[in-house]
Write a structure and sequence with these properties.
Keywords: Cell outer membrane, Membrane, Receptor, Signal, TonB box, Transmembrane, Transmembrane beta strand, Transport. The chain is mostly beta strands. Helices cover about 5% and strands about 55% of the residues.
Length: about 775
């Protein structure tokens, strides 16, 4: 009897269970961020007790869910909140993959980066230290170009090389611009001529984030990555808004417009188009030297990116950009009728530049990716009577093979780079004065092995071989070690070598401006560098809910064959030669990212460094390098008022500056100087933002405390300068300081306080 009763109860329980399960369903899927599986993501159905956490591979599963409509919520501390309305039907499991978007106003250990290893990994997992700056960070101080925007990045300084035409390059840890490689979507687009003349005009509306590596990256990226690299990652079309516009103007008469929009072509292609237009035509001479304080510019840049949907999510992306710019600076009386003449001095530069880049994943079982780029750059310039007309074409192809074998994550690749360069200077002339354009082939192969010793320890070994048809064979090995202490702490050690082949006239604007002759003493050899750095990153969660991110790095780089321009031996010449000794760059940096629950946010950075040159047992400090730099961006949100306040700035210690002679009355060193800005942003209107503020509210310019900045603006063609038999300048009553015309004494922007106002729209 008891047995029959127990059997009946068991059958009844099973029947009820089956009936209950018949009325429920299952929700499951995978959570990723930029294609990387995301563990430890909280997933739950709003207003229910049903929830779970994604596993180590990013998978999640919710069971026994009654049929109905729900709001699915996925949250992770370092990513934007994900919400989606879903409809679950009885006995019909729903498969839903979730793509998380990173918080756009912070940098975190979970950010996805690609620059360190050419693979998409989280910052925490990358064995190479990579700094990440999202587009929202640069909106704290809106600028008309990426070149200007980088002034907010710790250890990175946009350096103007000419007080008249305002062209410049990017310094990382005090190293000159030619040591910095600038990439767009991993392709070496901005190099050589583009480093000096073409860095402007990348539409900021298309920038997803900017990744920065400090230290040699030549083992993966080859020449020009000898001091570090900046990788500008553009938005994927599916992540971009349908329409975006950002327009601002300043009280100096600058007007900048950024537009982007995306469209679908059929069901398999998405097009993202961006346009940047900048115009400045106001002749301002606040330091009263009769020369323009800021170069006048008229620039347009158009960028278009095509993404195609393919089987098995294989990659196919093609992008192109065209830039045209007309800029000039000089005597405020100048117009185009004086271009190239010796009556009224002006520096006029016409730039026409076309770029093409793309990536194609081969339709085979193995993961093979072919990436390519092509650049055509034409330059037509006049620096007073000096004519500089140049044409450069660079074709680049790269095939990579990505393979995982147990604890080894392999990456192998082959590259080929062809550079054609021709100009009207002695750089492309035979000894018999016939034209001899430079045609340089640079094939290379590389291999990289990430070895996962244990879940928390990883080694990276890399080796690259390049053959230059002028300089011969070049080897660049690489070693990295990463210890993932836990989810919020990582320690990295990196060591490697770098190399750089040289194109003087495309890299050093001072060789063209002014009235100096260029002298190359010997056949120039490739520069080499040897680097070690130690990095520690940490995330701290405050009891009150705030977050502190810290990133500290110590670095040391040793250079041989370094090419040093000598401005001081002869005031009328720039003399180039390989250094017979060595150069050293060393220092330490600290970045901090603090977010508090009360709406305050601090992003700060400081770098202590020393850059020296040693020759004949004499060590001197390198020209135009600071020993200390600091940056900050402090933000506060007044949420009830829909108002954000951003206070941004930088500070630099004194630099050694190029003087023309011992009699030159200008200061031999710059003072401590700082550019500081404040911005107010109102976002209380749907899809609209209005912002306004003050740039450089301290009104700092380099002429403060100096008798003049540009030497002899009254005689820019040196018609009244007297030279002795050795070619040195002789002091005269008209020229008591023995000077020639020289606009290269520059270390800070010559643009003072100005008010700006702008508006943004996003659909």
């Amino acid at each position: 009897m008891k047995l029959s009763k127990s059997l009946f109860n068991g059958i009844l329980f099973m029947a009820l269970t089956q009936a209950l399960q018949a009325q429920t369903t299952i929700l499951k899927g995978k959570i990723t961020a930029d294609g990387i599986p995301m563990p430890s993501v909280n997933i739950h159905l709003d207003k229910t007790t049903i929830g779970t956490v994604s596993d180590s591979s990013g998978y999640y599963k919710l069971e026994n869910i009654p049929a109905g409509r729900y709001k699915l919520i996925a949250t992770h501390l370092n990513y934007s909140r994900y919400e989606k309305e879903i409809h679950l039907e009885t006995q019909q499991p729903l498969f839903l993959n979730i793509e998380l978007e990173p918080l756009r106003d912070t940098t975190t250990l979970q950010d996805v980066v690609i620059s360190g290893t050419m693979k998409a990994v989280s910052r925490l997992e990358s064995p190479v230290a990579v700094e990440v700056y999202h587009a929202a960070y640069f909106k704290k101080n809106p600028t008309p170009s990426i070149f200007d925007a980088l002034q907010l990045v710790n250890g990175v300084r946009p350096q103007l090389n000419c007080n008249i035409c305002n062209t410049g390059d990017i310094h990382i840890n005090g190293l000159e611009g030619p040591y910095t490689m600038v990439l767009i979507d991993g392709m070496p687009i901005v190099s050589a001529l583009g480093t000096v003349y073409g860095l402007s005009g990348i539409p900021s509306s298309l920038v997803e984030r900017i990744e920065v590596i400090k230290g040699p990256a030549s083992s993966l990226y080859g020449s020009e990555a000898v001091g570090g690299l900046i990788n500008i990652i553009t938005k994927k079309p599916h992540n971009a808004p349908h329409i975006f516009a950002d327009v601002f103007a300043t009280s100096w008469g600058e007007y900048n417009t950024d537009l982007s929009f995306k469209t679908n072509v059929g069901s398999n292609a998405t097009i993202l188009t961006g346009v940047n237009y900048f115009n400045y035509q106001n002749r301002i001479d606040k330091n009263q030297d009769n020369f323009t304080d800021v170069t006048l510019q008229n620039r347009i840049s158009v960028f278009q990116k095509w993404n195609f949907t393919r089987k098995q999510s294989r990659l196919l992306s093609v992008a192109g950009r065209y830039l045209y710019e007309d800029r000039w600076g000089g005597d405020i009386r100048w117009n185009k009728s004086f271009r190239g003449g010796d009556e009224i001095y002006g520096e006029s530069i016409y730039t026409s530049r076309a770029e093409l880049l793309g990536s194609y994943e081969l339709p085979i079982k193995e993961k093979l990716l072919f990436a390519f780029s092509f650049i055509s750059h034409n330059q037509d310039s006049r620096y007073g009577t000096t004519s500089y007309i140049a044409n450069q074409k660079i074709a680049y192809g790269q095939l990579t093979w990505d393979k995982t074998l147990k604890s080894h994550d392999l990456l192998a690749g082959a590259t080929l780079r062809y550079t054609y360069y021709d100009d009207n200077t002695p750089a492309t002339k035979h000894h018999d004065a016939t034209n001899n354009p430079e045609k340089m082939w640079l094939p290379g192969i590389f291999i990289q092995d990430e070895i996962h010793m244990t879940p928390n320890h990883k080694w990276l070994l890399g080796l690259r071989y390049d053959y230059n048809n002028i300089h011969g064979s070049i080897f660049t090995p690489r070693l990295a070690y990463k210890w993932s202490i836990n989810d919020n702490n990582a320690l990295r050690f990196n060591a490697g070598t770098g190399f750089r082949v040289v194109n003087l006239f495309t890299e050093d604007h001072a060789a063209l401006t002014g009235a100096r002759d260029v002298v190359i003493l010997n056949h120039l050899k490739p520069e080499r560098s040897y680097n070690v750095n130690l990095n520690y990153s940490k995330k701290i969660y405050l009891p009150a809910g705030g977050i502190i991110g810290l990133d500290a790095t110590a670095f040391y780089t040793y250079f041989t064959n370094k090419i040093i321009p000598d401005y001081e031996s002869d005031a009328n010449k720039i003399i180039y030669d390989n250094l017979s000794g060595h150069a050293i760059s060393k220092g330490a940096s600290l970045n901090s990212d603090i977010t508090l629950r009360n709406g305050l946010k601090f992003i700060t950075g400081l770098t202590l460094m020393s850059n020296t040159i040693t020759e004949d047992n004499i060590t001197t400090r390198q020209m135009l390098t600071e020993n200390f730099t600091g940056t900050w961006a402090i933000s506060y949100q007044l949420k009830p008022l829909f108002l954000t306040i951003d206070y941004t700035g930088n500070v630099y210690s004194p630099m050694r500056l190029p003087l023309l002679s011992e009699l030159d009355p200008r200061k031999p060193e710059s003072p401590w100087w700082s550019i500081q800005n404040i911005q107010f942003t109102y976002n209380g209107w749907h899809q609209w933002e209005v912002y306004a503020g003050i740039k450089n509210f301290l009104n700092w310019t380099p002429n403060k405390g100096n008798p003049f900045i540009i030497a002899r603006t009254n005689d820019p063609f040196d018609k009244n300068v007297v030279f002795d038999e050795q070619g040195k300048v002789v002091p005269t009553p008209d020229n008591p300081y023995a000077l020639t015309f020289d606009p290269t004494y520059v270390y800070a922007p010559n643009q003072g306080l100005r008010v700006f106002v702008g508006i943004r729209f996003k659909l």
